[in-house]
């Protein structure tokens, strides 16, 4: 079929007195084709009116489309069973041309942002090899919309506490806060409503006020509105996570921060700039961070179990044995767990990021539980020795004594290496004096 430009050229050459033979030679067209265009006297390409093979079955197709829940394969099978002579490509072409089962095409549009106007935040699940095992993690990402500065971290779960921890680190990484943070109607932030009618949870609204920004949400299904943060997830999965293994959560997030530094200093073809250079302009428009940023934490009340442990997220943290049965306050931050009985008594643990790891974490430098093993006057140790000598053969009783002594020496040696380990020597000296 000739294009409109070719038809126009034929008509213009003929108007200048060029013969049909010469026109066909110059344009490399057949003379019948040239004559056909000259007879039409129109440069527009004529429309082709072909009968639709599926047109006689229109009503039946519409009925079956609803009955078969939009499955055109089933629609075609039912049409063939009823005696219709229609190929599957003819059916799909008919439905496509007449908009049957086809959503109208809508232009995505373009969103432009001023410096410091908006940060977009979202999460996405990814699979990571962590500590020699593959597991799913929640990747939280934040992007400054003007400069495209990227920051992300990974978490085992992503709850309201994790969201506040991440956004605090992101704002510190950007050295400022935008006017608003765009989210995708996540329940972590949203109390009720969607899009423009979204009302954030009071806890998260207060968190935003601390840094001077407000949470906003896009309409459900309008993923293009958060395209700045959606696009990097594929890049993170295909570049940062591809072929990399990590020893633990600290290693993973530290290398993620280093990767962000590298990526933010690399030229981006789609924006024709380096994000770090655009950030130099945007940073001037960000709101300054508060002079003091309190550490994100959450408080919980727990009872110390009969073994001297406090359970938190299926992990167990040890406390002094004289706290057994007492109610304690647990203060959880990003890196540590503080268990407080009163104003003067508190123990601190390193926080275990894994949920449900069933890890019993000993207190750094604690000597309360092991005193039962080190102190010769302690009841359980003395009972074990007495029962061994009363009920067992001499050889077995002597073996029990040796094993208790070896265990005591191992514990004492460990405690000597801990801060404040000098007082362990007092217990050892008392034991030797009692033996004499």
Could you outline the blueprint of secondary structure elements for this entry?
Blueprint: H1 4-15, H2 20-27, H3 31-40, H4 58-67, H5 72-81, H6 88-97, E1 118-130, E2 133-144, E3 150-155, H7 160-174, E4 180-183, E5 190-192, E6 199-200, H8 202-211, E7 214-217, H9 227-240, E8 245-246, H10 249-264, H11 275-282, E9 298-303, E10 309-312, E11 315-318, E12 327-332, E13 336-340, E14 346-350, E15 360-361, H12 371-374, H13 379-391, H14 394-416, H15 424-435
Parallel strand pairs: 1-4, 1-8, 4-7, 11-15
Antiparallel strand pairs: 1-2, 2-3, 5-6, 9-12, 10-11, 12-13, 13-14
Could you explain the architecture of this structure?
Helix content is about 40%, strand content about 20%. The protein is of the alpha/beta class and about 425 residues long. It has 5 domains: about 5-40, Arc Repressor Mutant, subunit A; about 55-95; about 120-285, Nucleotidyltransferase, domain 5 (2-Layer Sandwich); about 300-360, no CATH class; about 370-435, no CATH class. The strands form 4 sheets. Strands 1, 2, 3, 4, 7 and 8 form a 6-stranded mixed β-sheet that branches. A 4-stranded antiparallel β-sheet has the order 9-12-13-14, with no helix packed on it. It has a 3-stranded mixed β-sheet with strand order 10-11-15, with no helix packed on it. A hairpin with a 5-residue loop joins strand 2 and strand 3. Helix 2 packs across helix 3 (about 30-40) and helix 4 packs across helix 5 (about 70-80). The longest helix has 23 residues, at about 395-415.
